[in-house]
Design a protein that fits this description.
heterodimer; A: Rossmann fold; SH3 type barrels; Elongation Factor Tu (Ef-tu), domain 3; six-stranded antiparallel beta barrel; B: Aspartate Aminotransferase, domain 1; Aspartate Aminotransferase, domain 2; seven-stranded mixed beta sheet; three-stranded antiparallel beta sheet
Chain lengths: 375, 400
């Protein structure tokens, strides 16, 4: 904290005013702490909540633990009032629907397991809010992400993993434009979650004891299957039904009501009565066949990645740490450029490589890029 | 930070003399309907308040029905007329406050026939349409005296005469005119008028329904015998007292002459503001500035400047302005009033409303324009930079 206050002092000496930060406040404990820490450090702070989903569609009782309800907006507002900072609700419903919800539904209907938080970061938090930051004449954009901005090997600000290994959220940040990185602040990135809660309690913030948000904010307690069914017409879903077959024999195990119910590596909820433990291995879009089989078939060494993006230069053939899902340790892989994107050759076999999820690259603790896993 | 308030059409700060008066009367608590000493004190406050307001408006105290505000007053007139009139045709303008428009739509859903009188982007109400649709079947016409967003003044006297000639009642929502514009209820000749205390430098939560002697009077809120059985419910004692106290202060300072003087002073500020903005900021248009309007209101269209963003930018610098009616701020829909006047969505979304009040000074206006210039420039610089994901490039309906 001492260090950040020095940053403020330096800014003030140089520009003759306090640095101004726009803080994205979801109404959760992490972004509340982020806003409060910046106030402590002497920043001129402006709070904003993106209203991304029509909360009238949500069950109000779901308010705790998701970021889509009006109760969360109220919480963010009361934290802002408590801190004495201006606070605005930015309506982003249309943008969120097009940039996050629709690709999410489309991916499920194409047999993938999407990662909507990345799109939200790409198109809303680190595009729309960056623009708001400039329009509101703020110098920085701050969020409650578990990630750190530290000097990279070239001395420029770069994104590094949080000191809380479990909460680290850099997996969702690989699409950030490198130009934007020097404008970012992650005030809680050097803290561990329990300490963030203790801090909020000490500061008397109403969000201190709020449940962690888990899963996807707009899905809530409803579950993916139900959410998708609430958004997509029954005819379209019906066209996604098919058979579950055993790999490699092709033995028909039974019918299923739609490929959106399955994700690679899934071992539960397959609707099968079978003495062996079977896992979803592959979804075949031609005829909507869901292939299930023994766990050993879940492992692979090679992963194809499309739409790669880099925050730092990466040599062709360089060995990097790669995460293929959130809250997983990174594994070493050699990164090769291909005509369509990248091919990752892992040094050790990976379990359940899932199309639609991201492969995110690290050079030690530094986030250097990522891309989308494809078939 | 220096806070400058330029949003008097949303609400007004409490008049300094009235603040003192309020402080001195906080210990008055009796139920005005009680016979004992505590009730008598309260009843006296209410009576004095009613007399001051009646004096200021130059009407009889009996013609004043206290309410919770103008929304209640307008609801009362429209709903009770619908319930009790044998005639089922109603008219109002397309730029009325939601408390009139939404109530009209409500009675429409219950079977009333409602015609909405168009208003042009120049701020003129379509009198031809009015004449054509007004019939002997018309029960009630409701047209505001001054519009909240553009300040446009409508020819209420003429319209009320036309309504009466067809046997219709006439109501005016006069909220925005009170304290800003010189008018006489008698000359206007309306049957009903709605007012809110908080737009007249008094407290929120109280207002009046002016109901001309002889006009039908039916209570919307049934309850006790307050307001001579015309509005049930224990009175908002201090709110009403503050309303009366502002009226008393204004009378002391000259009454209508004081309002006239204030309105002229404010016009000088408003004209200065508009002249400077037109001269110093490019691509700005004024809305409805060529026709009669309140002297305090300026409605601007600033090309390529999202109104909501500009409002936030200015707020951070200490300025309070508006992009539309206060009730709809926080809602992304552009002002329905401006849309109804024929502005495009884009124009309505890039509109800014500045509404001056009694306490504003030339120095404040100048300081505001200096900062407005910077804010507009900043936002315009960013307006042309592309989004990664541009909604304008998207098909209106998604694939799924």
């Amino acid at each position: 904290m001492q260090k950040a206050s020095e940053t403020v002092q330096k800014f003030q000496d140089q520009f003759g005013r306090k640095p101004r930060a726009l803080v994205a406040m979801s109404g959760g404990v992490d972004s509340s702490a982020a806003a409060s820490l910046l106030v402590d450090q002497g920043y001129d702070v402006v709070g904003a909540t993106m209203q991304v989903w029509d909360y009238s569609q949500c069950d109000v009782t779901e308010g705790n633990g998701t970021c889509c309800s009006s109760l969360d907006v109220d919480d963010a507002r009361s934290v802002a009032d408590h801190l004495g900072i201006p606070f605005y609700v930015l309506n982003c419903e249309a943008k969120f629907k097009h940039a996050v919800i629709e690709p999410f539904l489309k991916a499920y209907l194409e047999g993938q397991t999407p990662l909507p938080c990345v799109n939200c970061n790409t198109y809303l938090k680190f595009d729309h809010l960056i623009r708001k930051m400039k329009e509101l004449e703020c110098d920085y954009l701050a969020t409650g992400h578990y990630a750190q901005i530290l000097a990279g090997h070239d001395g420029r600000p770069a994104i590094f993993t949080s000191t809380d290994d479990w909460k680290d959220q850099t997996y969702f940040l690989f699409t950030i434009d490198p130009e934007v990185v020097p404008k970012l602040l992650f005030p809680i990135g050097h803290m561990k979650k329990p300490d963030v809660r203790i801090y909020c309690e000490e500061k008397g913030l109403v969000t201190a004891k709020k449940k962690d948000s888990t899963g996807i904010c707009f899905v809530g307690d409803m579950g993916y299957g139900k959410f998708i069914e609430s958004q997509v017409s029954p005819e379209i879903l019906k066209a996604k039904s098919g058979l579950i077959k055993r790999y490699p024999s092709g033995l028909v195990m039974g019918p299923h009501t739609g490929i959106h119910h399955f994700t690679i590596g899934q071992g539960k909820g397959l609707g099968l009565t079978h003495h062996e433990k079977l896992f979803v291995l592959k979804v075949d879009l031609q005829d909507n066949t869901v292939w299930v089989g023994d766990e050993e078939y879940l492992y692979s060494k090679d992963v194809e990645v499309i739409e790669p993006q880099f925050l730092s230069t990466v040599e062709d053939g360089e060995v990097l740490g790669v995460k293929i899902r959130y809250q997983q340790k990174s594994s070493q892989a050699q990164v090769h450029r291909t005509a369509t994107g990248l091919r990752l050759e892992f040094l050790e076999k990976q379990r359940a490589v899932t199309p639609g999820q991201a492969a995110v690259f690290y050079r030690e603790k530094q986030l250097v890029g990522g891309g989308w896993i494809t078939l | 930070m220096n806070f400058i308030y330029l949003d008097h059409n949303a609400t007004t700060p409490i008049f300094p003399e009235t603040q003192k008066f309020m402080g001195a009367h906080l210990d008055i608590f009796g139920n005005p309907s009680s016979i004992h000493w505590a009730g008598r004190k309260s009843k006296a406050l209410i009576r004095e308040s009613r007399i001051s307001i009646a004096q200021f408006l130059k009407v009889s105290p009996l013609e004043i029905i206290f309410s919770s505000g103008a929304s209640e007053a307008s609801n009362t007139v429209i709903k009770t007329t619908f319930l009790h009139s044998l005639k089922k045709h109603f008219m109002c303008s397309t730029v009325e406050h939601p408390s009139v428009i939404k109530t009209m739509q409500y009675i429409q859903s219950l079977g009333a026939k409602v015609d909405f009188i168009p208003v042009s982007r120049e701020g003129l109400i379509d009198l031809e349409f009015y004449k054509k649709n007004l019939t002997t079947e018309t029960a009630l016409v409701s047209v505001m005296l001054a519009n909240n967003e553009t300040g446009s003044l409508f020819p209420i006297q003429e319209m009320a005469q036309m309504a009466h000639a067809k046997g219709a009642l006439f109501h005016t929502d006069a909220v925005q005119a009170l304290g800003k514009h010189v008018f006489s209820l008698i000359e206007l000749g309306v049957d009903y008028a709605s007012f809110s205390a908080h737009k007249f430098y008094a407290m929120k939560g109280s207002g009046i329904l002016y109901s001309k002697k002889g006009a039908p009077q039916i209570s919307l809120i049934h309850g006790g015998a307050q307001e001579r059985h015309r509005r049930g419910g224990t009175e908002n004692l201090l709110g009403l007292a503050s309303f009366g106290e502002v009226a008393r202060q204004v009378i002391e300072k000259g009454g209508i002459d004081f309002i006239q003087k204030k309105s002229e002073e404010i016009k000088i500020l408003r004209d200065h503001l508009e002249n400077r903005i037109l001269k110093e900021i490019s691509h700005v248009k004024l809305t409805a500035s060529e026709n009669p309007r309140l002297t305090n209101t300026s409605s601007l269209i600033l090309d390529q400047v999202d109104g909501e963003t500009l409002l936030m930018n200015l707020d951070i610098k200490g300025y309070a302005v508006s992009t539309g009616a206060a009730c709809s701020s926080g809602n992304p829909e552009p002002s329905p009033v401006l849309l109804a006047m024929g502005l495009t969505r884009e124009e309505a979304q890039t509109s800014l409303r500045i509404s001056l009040g009694w306490e504003n000074s030339l120095k404040e206006v100048d300081q505001f324009i200096d900062d407005l210039k910077i804010s507009v420039q900043k936002i315009r610089d960013i307006a042309n930079s592309p989004y990664k994901f541009d909604l304008k490039l998207m098909s209106p309906v998604g694939e799924v």
